[in-house]
Amino acid sequence: xxxxxDSEVGRLGTVLxxxxxxxxxxxxxxxxxxxxxxxxxxxxxxxxxxxxFAAVLRERGVEVLYLATxxxxxxxxxxxxAELTEQVLGDPRLGDTLRRRTADHLxxxxxxxxxxxxxxxxxxxxxxLGGDRPTGLVHALMDRHEFVIDPLPNLLFTxxxxxxxxxxxxxxxLAMPARQRETSLTGAIYRHHPRFAGTxxxxxxTLETVEGGDVLLLAPGVVAVGVGERTTPAGAERxxxxxxxxxxxxxxxxxxxxxxRATMHLDTVCTMIDTDxxxxxxxxxxxxxxxxxxxxxxxxxxxxxxxxxxxxxxEAMGLETLHLVDTGLDPVTAEREQWDDGNNTLAIxxxxxxxxxxxxxxxxxxxxxxxxxxxxxxxxxxxxxxxPRCMSCPILREAR
Length: 400
What we know:
alpha/beta; L-arginine/glycine Amidinotransferase, Chain A; Pentein; 5-stranded mixed sheet; 3-stranded mixed sheet; 13 helices
């Protein structure tokens, strides 16, 4: 299979999604903050909303791949199964005895069942012990609802754990402890699943922190990387060096983003809706700056700036002007719709995007300039602070 992405707006051919499941039912008022959700989602409604999202993509000719399906197929490969099992058993919280009992439990599971556990987690009360074998001190002191294997409710946001840069995949390094195991699943799929045979990996989770929501492919050869709450300057530098080394970029724009919950990634304040047009949070549009990074003749990086982001991006993209559409119509509406992921649109093609229906003013502004907006419900999906772009990892787009 050919997998290739060189822009944010080339016609979308294939996308990786994760349909929310039992992992969302693990969220409670006691753990939702540590698991990075702002509310307790209604799981059935979240699934309905996600199914509707996938349906509108298919209606536009997009191939939808599901991460859980790929994971189950990957776990049928002994090497991949051993790798992912060893990874969860390496949790130092378990202790030797509970680790052995957990290994016994996992060994009895088929590939699909094991995939479910790796995504939804395993509570103490669900652990099958068998016989009179000792369970150890850790098990004895655990609450019955405590997790032996933590759930991954943020797996819904497939954008963050990998990014395709032309024909290479960057398996990222996630900042928050609740999310770090997500990349082990994505990485195993890319390295072991037959669909991705021969995929060349550009990044890996052992490196400095980089998250996919901070990486925007502005144009072929031009990539913007946000730095802030989730992606560090060291991560941006490492990714830039690797992209230059293999020739997938000529210019990288490093963009500092305020370290706040509502602006956790660059794509929470800015997404592309056409080859020369961005949708951006009004409160940052004219203060956002960028450092322009290019490869120096001596093999080191050349850094210029800071320069206003819109100007730096236009210059790097070879445009006279990068057109701007503001979120909302006034400061209060802009702030509300920014919180509700009004800027986090997914382009299916130039001037065609998917957005949450609740961002009424932003969607109306897009339509006034001729952008076709496909509205989807997101009352439950949005409780993890992510929109259509966050929930999708493009694997194939029409080359520009």
